[in-house]
Predict the 3D structure of the following.
Amino acid sequence: MSSPGAELEYEVVDVFAPRAYAGNPLAVVYDADALTTEQCQALAFEFHLSETSFLCAPTEGSGADHPGSAGGPKADYRVRIFTPYAELPFAGHPSVGAAHTLVRAGRLPAGTVRQECGAGILDLVVDEDGATLSGGRATLEDGPDPGRLAEAMGLSSADAVGIPAHVAGCGLPFTYLAVRREVVDEAAPVPALLGELGVGEGVSVLSWDAATSTVYARVFAADLAWGEDPATGSAALGAGVWLVAAGLVTGDGTSSYVIRQGEAMGRPSHLSCTVTAAGRRVTAATVQGAVVPIARGRIRVP
């Protein structure tokens, strides 16, 4: 346990950000190995951003459980990810932001870094501007009726465009609801109705523009008390699985697409993604984005 009253270094960065004060803000706490779960949760609540990354030394496992790995080296570091209310096994913007911050601070060299988290060991490729995250194993399940889900998101059942609302993910599952572009910004979760549908982690309300391979999305997360998230890397990865399952991109080969998110919140975010499939089964997915440093300081341990 880290001694209460001691101090730890932290930074705040904007992730998937085309500029400063855009994208999704993230607190990154260094040298967090001695913090208890309760201390991490208290600090995350104090920062009160959508997530906080706590950087720790890796455990003694090998990289054998990394998707596509043949038993490579162990992770370079371990990250614990907390919302103000709960710990997550994995999330995209805390992973991208943590990796880039470690490299920018000189604690790791640029290039491929291996991150240990609750979802296993994942690769990120870090350059000067940001990082590219490879998702974990793709998962896909049937979701609720799109019309009923639209109503649970404060819309009309007629706003759904007839595409299945699959539950998809590459480390953290989300439910995807395709609606008419003009109503995306009108979505407002109704928690009681979502509870009746058994919707778990979160919902991405989106529209797909095939001409530009662009998704315009808003993401609402249960672990944010059904608040809105300005940029969600894990949901961007899962969107690729959903796009393949829905037949909106090729089921054989690699497709590129862009996620626009956070615009309704005044935090415009840009997530560049790829999804690779064979026989309509997703074999790989990536999400890339820029990371902009905003603040640094020291915070008292609870």
Q: What stands out?
A: Residues 62-70 have pLDDT under 50 and may be disordered. Residues 159 and 179 are 5 Å apart (CA to CA). The helical segments are 37-47, 92-104, 146-152, 191-197, 233-245. The domain at 139-288 is CATH 3.10.310.10 (Diaminopimelate Epimerase; Chain A, domain 1).
